[in-house]
Amino acid sequence: MLKCKSLLLHYSTMEQPLHVKYHLKVPNQYIKKLSLVLAFDCKMAERPPIRSRLAWQEEVGAPQELRSPLDPKQVDVVQPLQIDAGWLPVYQFERRRVDSIVSFVSSPEKEESQKIPFLQNICDLCYNSKRHGPPQGLDLFCQRYGLAENIKVLLEEEPRNKLRTAVRWNAMLAIAELSAVERALEGKEASLLQACFSSVFLLPPEEKMQDMGRYLFLKTMEAMDNMLQALVLGSSASRVSELLQNIFQMLLTFTTSERECVQERAVGRIEKMSSALFRHPTLASCARYLRTSERTDIVLVFIEAMRDTSIFDKKRATDLLDMVMEFPDFWLADLPKIMRCIHKNLDSINTAPARQSVASLLLLMADRRPGKVLTTLLRIAPPGDRTALDMWDMMISTPRPLKKILKNLRKRLLVIDAMFPEGVISGSESPDMARKIQSLLPQVVGLLDHSNTDVKRRVLTFFCSVMGHLKREEARPTVEQLEEKLLPLFDDESSQLRELSICLFRERVQSVMVHDKKRIKSYVHRALLPLFFRLSDQSNNVAKAAREALLGAAELLKWKQLRHLVRTQQTWRIGESLLEQNRSRAQELLSQSLPYLRDAQASLREAAVRFIGLAARPLRDRREEEKLAEICSALRPLETDSKSFVRSLAAQTIVILSSPREQPRSRWALQALCCWRH
Predict the structure, then answer these.
(1) I need a labelling partner for 474 at 20 to 30 A (CA). Which of 117, 222, 272, 549 fits?
(2) Residue 136 backbone zone (phi > 0: left; psi -120 to 50: alpha; other: beta)
(3) Closest Cα partner for 614 from 550, 529, 531?
């Protein structure tokens, strides 16, 4: 009992009690409980000591010769210090503590009751040595007697399934004090950190701890935060970068644990350390040593902590993102990676404060680097992606970021090399978004001159989406630009482009306002013949789109016969109707049909030959030999066409147009020319 009283007296009468020295607020009831714990440890100390096994000795296959030969129940008598301590300047002031430390590390048996005094002696020795001037020789003492290694062993020996003593707490305090001793921990920080984190993070959840265990845990975590800061502050300038990276890399590793309590503890330390890097006047200078990858990974952890399924407190998570936004130059270094993380997790972030915090982060990034944010979102967003649309809405919810994004998007559209961004197409599906990006439309129209088929396809898809959400008056300026771009696309090699351009034409015809009809009729007249030929398109979708567009044109022009023929699908008579309705433009229609003789589709070449045969009849009646010769010359290459029905029809048409007219051909003969097919 004398030994027990001595320990209690040491705690209560030391020069600076532990909770006073380290500014810890310890309730009286816990001081009483601590005294009971120490008393229990002293009681246990009166029993024969039990050997303390090192972690590596417990492993299967540990070398037998490394095990202590002492009898497990042999009571060791602490021998007087067998060294000349005169070389250690602090020895004259701290003889008792030095002797006690050396006795503990020299003993093969580590008594449980001596662990906490050993750690406290290290704290007091380091603390008091600074009071007597520079701690000369103390680093050599720490290295010679392996104080760091002994602390590591004590941490590894602590049971992972419970917390019943203050060993972990005192170990953190001891490491913090040793960090102020130059070279005392050099080369040992990484292994010490791993031991600290594993010993504490892997403990059971706090709710499963007893009151005393919960109190010790909270104080241990507080001491760990202080220790991490002390390690960085005590590190040399040449090693602070490596130390910071080690700290954050280890913490980030624990954030991927399957146990939620482990994740929360690791994120909490990241939070404390990150905050200290900017708010601590001395630590702030160390922040620059943290690599971009570590900074970004930390931000990703903060974002993932906002998920609905995360057990991390959402208020703390929003505070963490607020800290990130407070120092954007430091944290927001890898915007693409951060954007991908937001895109991946946004659907799982649904609480209002958390979602608002993410929105604020997106707004900040869009305001600071709109080009990079825009490019990243356009690349990561697949067509129709709803998460990307949510991100768009967040970024352009205020005027300033919207203005910058649109400006950069215009630049991107003007210099685009490969593909019109799918993200813009996705965004245009929303009515609000369509109106917000309305100012982009003139630049988008210009992309229809691009040589890349996929670019043009995306542009047309974009217009198909956005035009339906705009009022007619809003869309008018862009539509007028678009009109002249559409007609050439009716005959594009890509069936998708043909279909999309014809569909847009139909929508344009259907949306014509009363005061604009006169101007648009001239445009519609020029589209009639290409639409007629596309009725014979081998793509059913194109043929269907052409039929619907022709019907819309007939209704606009109020051509009842054409409307009837289109509805009843009398394709062979539509060409004749076009000639009858456009007698003044017959020559123009004839010239317009000649390029279709070279179309890649045999069905269109055939339709062109038949139409030319009908359109050239007036020339034959008027004996315009020169023009007839030009037409026959255009038809002759088809006499060697790959398709026999095209060859036969071309040959027959040439013969008819070349022979002198003897009498007016009957209607039956004209119909035969339209319908005959070899």
Answers:
(1) 549
(2) beta
(3) 529
Residue 495, classified by CB atoms within 10 Å of its CB into exposed (0-12), middle (13-18) or buried (19+), is middle
Can you give the pLDDT at residue 410? 58
In angstroms, the CA 501 to CA 495 distance is 10
Tokens encoding 617: 């009849």
The residues, ordered by sequence, that sit 6+ positions from 363 with a Cβ below 8 Å of its Cβ are 394, 395, 397, 398, 401
d(CA 381, CA 388): 6
- 497 Cβ contact list (under 8 Å, min separation 6): 453, 456, 457, 460, 489
pTM score, whole prediction: 0.52
Alpha helices in 305-451 (DSSP H): 314-326, 328-331, 335-345, 352-368, 370-380, 386-395, 399-415, 422-428, 431-436, 441-446
In the structure, how many helices (H) and strands (E) does the chain have? 36, 0
470 pLDDT tier (thresholds 50, 70, 90): low
CB 142 within 8 A of CB 90: no
Alpha carbon of 82 to those of 99, 106, 454, 502, 602: distances in Å? 10, 10, 85, 100, 107
23 three-state secondary structure: coil
Q: What is the pLDDT of residues 541-586, one digit of tens each?
A: 999 999 999 999 999 899 999 999 999 999 889 999 998 888 888 8
Q: Is 664 exposed, middle or buried (0-12, 13-18, 19+ CB in 10 A)?
A: exposed
* Three-state DSSP state, 398: coil
Both tokens of 534, joined, read: 């596309």
Q: Note whether 143 and 183 are within 8 A (CB).
A: yes
Which one-letter DSSP state was computed for residue 15? S
How many angstroms separate the CA atoms of 598 and 138, rounded? 95
Alpha-carbon distance 604 to 597, whole Å? 8
- Amino acid at residue number 214: R
**What is the rounded CA–CA span in Å between residue 74 and residue 54?**
18
- Non-local CB neighbours of 279 within 8 Å, separated by 6+ positions: none
Q: What is the per-residue DSSP string for 546-558?
A: HHHHHHHHHHHHT
- Tokens representing 444 are 């988008």
Residue 76, phi then psi, degrees to nearest 5: -85, 140
The terminus-to-terminus CA distance of the chain in angstroms comes to: 121
Neighbours of 139 (CB within 10 A): 16
Spatial distance between the Cα atoms of 271 and 324, rounded to a whole number of angstroms: 10
CB contact set of 135 (below 8 Å; sequence gap of 6+): 89, 90, 126, 129, 181
The dihedral sign for the CA sequence 198, 200, 201, 202: positive
Question: Rounded CA gap, 358 and 371, in Å?
Answer: 19
- Cβ neighbors of 584 (< 8 A, separation 6 or more) are none
Do 109 and 75 meet the contact criterion of CB atoms below 8 Å apart? no
Structure tokens at 225: 């935060």
Of 47, 38, 105, 46, residue with least CA distance to 78: 105
Express each pLDDT in 107-146 by its tens digit: 888 889 999 999 999 999 888 887 766 667 788 888 888 9
- Structural element, H or E, at residue 54: none
Q: Which of 486, 434, 498, 432 is nearest to 462 (CA)?
A: 434
Q: Report whether pLDDT(603) > 90.
A: yes
- Classified as helix, coil or strand, 200 is helix
